[in-house]
Amino acid sequence: MNAVISSLDRNYRLCDTRITDSEIILYITSTLEKLCCPYCGTMTGRVHSYHTREIQDLPISDRKTILIVTTRKMKCINPECRHSTFA
To answer: Can you tell me the distance from the alpha carbon of 47 to that of 86, in angstroms, rounded to the nearest whole number?
Structure first.
């Protein structure tokens, strides 16, 4: 299953899977260690906080499919940037 996620987007990996009779839950997280601030262009690896997004996808084999995606809010390290955080 991790190969499927990686083939869709190389920047994400599958962390865990839970399968029941009624649903499939996929836990996904980003593999990127550093991101570029979209406001000033500075690269940063400082994480401000983590957020979880729940996305309901199309059913697979008549089972409700849910993606639990852990995203990061990053902290810009450029003291001259007007935005201290970005997602």
So the answer is: 10
